[in-house]
Amino acid sequence: METNFKHTLLTALLALTFGFLGAAVWSYAGLADNRTRTYLLDNPAILEDMSIALQQERLLERLADAGEGLYQPFEGAVIGNPEGSKVLVEFSDYNCGFCRTSLADVQRLVEQDPELKVVLREIPLRQGSEGSARMALAAALQGKYRAFHEAMFLVGDTSPMGVELAARQAGLDLERARADAASEQVSLELARNYTLLQQLGLNGTPAFITTGAVLPGAYGYDALKAALDEAEG
User: Fold this and answer.
1) What are the domain boundaries of the chain?
2) Is the whole model's pTM more than 0.70, yes or no?
3) What is the pLDDT of residues 77-99, one digit of tens each?
4) What's the helix, strand, coil split of the chain in %, to 5?
5) Measuring CA to CA, how many Å separate 156 from each of 109, 117, 153, 181, 187?
6) How would you class 136 by CB atoms within 10 Å of its CB: exposed for 0-12, middle for 13-18, buried for 19 or more?
7) For 93, which DSSP code?
8) Are 66 and 196 in contact (CB under 8 A)?
């Protein structure tokens, strides 16, 4: 009986999700069951909770399909402990305001946990972001990713002049950095990141990934820490 009841609730959720609203919903596929209708009317939040749970389940399925490569950084594109036992993946764009505000949350997590490795996946989705993403990966190849990453958000200008200013502030060898930024190695990494984002069914930044959760958006310090703690447990 309980299994049938849960199945009926799920059917109701799916029907509502696909837009079958109104009285016809309740007469379709046995949804006129008074107990189900009364329960949902008395507990409207359950539909939202079930919808969120269903979305997260699908995200986790995609996470499994993405494989271990998701957690393997581009050489040097890491903040925190490169050998850390805990991992947080972030898809980031330097023209994303929410990515900028999330920087302080990531820095706080790293400062408080010496075992945390934050893998940055450069994903220049917005117009004018590609040059800064390429330079960030070039900085990674010089072992100065974090310095450039933080300088780039501080400068806040992804024009060629702004990118070069951030590169200088990070102490990059500019001649080498320009060559690396234009290299096939960097181009392949950007293409790989686009593929991973698509595999996960995501379309924006920031997006954070642990080994057990997908958090699309600027969730804040508390939610990120809770996701990391749950993944560890």
Assistant:
1) 2-43, 69-232
2) yes
3) 999 999 999 999 999 999 999 99
4) 60, 10, 30
5) 23, 25, 5, 19, 23
6) buried
7) -
8) yes
Task: Work out the percent of the chain whose per-residue pLDDT is above 70.
Answer: 75
* 69-232 under CATH 3.40.30.10, yes or no: yes
Residue with tokens 């271990």: 68
Q: What is the residue type of 37?
A: R
Q: How far apart are CA 227 and CA 130, in angstroms?
A: 30
Please give the helix or strand (H or E) that residue 79 lies within, else none.
strand 78-80
Tokens (6 digits) for 121: 């996946």
Q: What is the pLDDT of residues 44-81, one digit of tens each?
A: 666 656 655 666 667 677 777 777 889 999 999 999 99
